[in-house]
Design brief:
single chain; 248 residues; alpha/beta; Rossmann fold; SIR2/SIRT2 'Small Domain'; six-stranded parallel sheet; two-stranded antiparallel sheet; 10 helices; 10 strands
């Protein structure tokens, strides 16, 4: 795959790179996106009806079981070449931040460390009733040992605000970035969908990688339609590996 030389040179010179990822990159690992049709017991429920504090209050076990199934599916999936390429980009770039809307933990398993999880992580838990300290959780039984309350997944539900520290870190990084990647995301869910605009308004080059066109496509400086698992490794090869004359 041949990328514009102007983009390759900009990436080689960039010190501050931010990458925003969405469900598309995980879908390449065979992990169904959040709003994909449910199967079996869950087929008559919409995720938007389950992923709420109100649903958890009505039936904690039902919601816990749904998330347990999602965790199992996430653990069965493996990081793909796109996840691995982003971890390598972090190692090569002077300043790199990965901002993800995904909760599946695949980026961590691929080796990414400098990252912000806007929507939390499905493999972590919180005390629903009293927000007790996490070191005293009985995860197997879904209970908090400190207060006896229920454990909920450590994700952001519908009707809840994103973690203030997470979104603030993401905004500051986007506004100071020199190159901003939007990868596998619909560019429809705010405030994440506004990060590219903040980056562009402050002089960053905006690069989109997505399987299908999005509202960002005609506005990005560069837009590549295709799989992140195919495009990102080639980016890494042309930017850093080819430049150094080595193999990776």
């Amino acid at each position: 795959m041949n990328f514009p030389e102007s983009l390759i040179e900009r990436l080689r010179q960039a010190r501050r790179i931010v990458a925003l990822t969405g469900a598309g990159i995980s879908a390449e690992s065979g992990l169904a996106t959040f709003r994909d049709a449910q199967t079996g017991l869950w087929s008559k429920y919409r995720p938007e009806e389950i992923a709420t504090a109100e649903a958890f209050q009505r039936d904690p076990k039902f919601v816990q079981d749904w998330y347990a199934r999602r965790r199992q599916n996430a653990l069965k999936s493996m990081p793909n070449a796109g996840h691995l390429a982003l971890a390598k980009m972090e190692q090569r770039a002077p300043e790199f931040l990965l901002v993800t809307q995904n909760v599946d933990g695949l980026h961590q398993r691929a080796g990414s460390k400098q990252m912000v999880e806007l929507h939390g992580n499905i493999h972590r838990f919180r005390c629903f009733e009293n927000d007790c300290a996490s070191e005293n959780f009985d995860v197997e039984n879904g209970r908090c040992r400190s207060c006896g309350g229920h454990l909920r997944p450590g994700v952001v539900w519908f009707g809840e605000m994103l973690p203030v520290d997470a979104i603030q870190t993401a905004v500051e990084a986007a506004e100071s970035s020199e190159v901003f990647f939007s990868i596998g995301t619909s560019s429809l869910v705010y405030p994440a969908a506004d990060l590219w605009r903040r980056a562009k308004n402050n002089g960053a080059v905006v690069v989109e990688i997505n399987k299908d066109p999005t509202p960002l496509t005609p506005l990005a400086d560069y837009s590549f339609l295709g799989k992140a698992g195919e495009i990102l490794p080639e980016f890494a090869r042309q930017i850093w590996i080819r430049q150094s004359g080595g193999a990776d």
